Amino acid sequence: MRSTNYIPDITGRPADVSRADASNAANRDLLELEAEAARQQQALDAQVARERAVAKAATGQ
To answer: How confident is the model at residue 3 (pLDDT cuts 50, 70, 90)?
Structure first.
């Protein structure tokens, strides 16, 4: 029986994964999420710019 202080039980990472490897994987995941958020924001900004240009053209400004 394992003690209650078995590190994988506490951390949730497999026994054969080091803390550094787990941290690197989490960082890669975070970087991908941040990149996706930036892509979505760029797409939204571009759409807003297009809509503003259409509205400006429609009002003759």
So the answer is: low
Poorest-pLDDT segment among 6-15, 33-42, 45-54: 6-15
What does the angle CA 21 – CA 25 – CA 10 come to, to the nearest 5 degrees? 65
pTM reported for the whole predicted model: 0.67
Could you write out the DSSP letters of every residue in the chain? Answer: ---TT-HHHHH-S-TTS-HHHHHHHHHHHHHHHHHHHHHHHHHHHHHHHHHHHHHHHHHT-
